[in-house]
Amino acid sequence: MVEKLTAAIEETMETQVVFTIPIFGGIPVSSSVVVTWIIMAVIILLSIIFTRNLKLVPDKKQVIIEAFVSFLRNFCRDQVGEKGMRYFPYLSTVLIYLGFSNLIGLFGFIPPTKDLNVTAALALMSIILIEVAGIRAKGTKGWLKSFTKPVAIITPLNVLEIGIRPLSLCMRLFGNILAATIIMEMLKAIVPVFIPVVFSLYFDIFDGLIQAYVFVFLTSLYIEEAIDVEE
Q: Among candidates 92, 106, 57, 40, which has minimal Cα distance to 215?
């Protein structure tokens, strides 16, 4: 039983290579990349289906998608304010992607957010956007000056925060999704099948959606802070 459990955990933590592209000595393509392609294809397909034949008098399908988009817009507006709504497309896209990524375990796929490379890339994109937003709002001089606030003595800490933020975003998302996946594998290995199904409702649905929300919430919070210009 212990050996079976250990093997299941090791298999969960291992980055699986699905196939290799035969150029430049072989480029390995991991399962997280393949699953991300699947997620992108599903999102694009759903976008086409839900946005075809839009009407002035909406039908039930159009009402649902309009309500969903309104929810995303209101969520982003509450976090970043009207000034930050130019970043709504990025925030909503990341939220939808993470929601799909964290729920895809219900269909037997390994969530791509279990791969540290994926969460690190997302965190890096977010932190670059945050700093660019700060430069756009304050100008380069004002952005540099913001590192000296509230007092100049803490400037090194403010500079260090540029690296700490993506690290915290990355490790929080990666750690929670990996831990949930490991727990589910442990449950499948040691208890009857119906018990993992019950726990899956929490780890694959509730926890997955919460982690997507937390990642985007923190990103939007950092953006709001970056674009806040003192009068």
A: 92
